[in-house]
Write a structure and sequence with these properties.
Elements (H helix, E strand, L loop, with lengths): L13 H14 L12 E6 L4 H10 L3 E6 L6 H15 L18 H9 L19
Parallel strand pairs: 1-2
Length: 135
């Protein structure tokens, strides 16, 4: 099967969209124990992935970083790039979509946590600190 993608607009992975939405909630102070000052959206991919960064900025992200690569990167490569960006940006919290929708690896978050030597959560239905964050 051959699929032509020329001229198609790239859309944000729904799992990544949820991560952006949650980061916006955190910045609004919905979870006082997790203050967020700045939201940086990152996309690693070809030139067309800039469309997803525009979406993140339109949603409310403060900054967008595009790491352009020619090939589809593997999860460990993505985790290494995200680690470098997190260190450069002095990040203290990273929210990722749980998996890609093109290849469904679902490994980048765990690898990133290991590289940063940070604790990580693979899935979070609701954030809890005394009461449910969305109540």
């Amino acid at each position: 099967m051959l699929i032509f993608v020329a001229g198609l607009k790239m859309s944000m992975n729904p799992f990544c969209e949820l991560a952006v939405e949650q980061s916006l909630r955190l910045r609004e102070g919905k979870v006082p124990s997790l203050p967020v000052e700045s939201i940086v959206a990152v996309s690693i991919g070809g030139a067309k992935t800039v469309d997803t960064l525009r979406t993140a900025l339109a949603m409310g992200a403060d900054k967008a970083i595009h790491v352009e690569v020619d090939s589809d990167p593997e999860p460990l490569s993505v985790a290494k790039v995200l680690k470098a960006i997190a260190e450069r940006e002095n990040s203290n919290l990273i929210l990722l979509g749980k998996q890609s929708i093109d290849r469904d690896f679902g490994q980048t978050g765990q690898m990133l946590g290991g590289l940063l030597n940070w604790p990580q959560v693979t899935e979070n239905y609701k954030s809890f600190k005394g009461k449910w964050a969305d109540e």
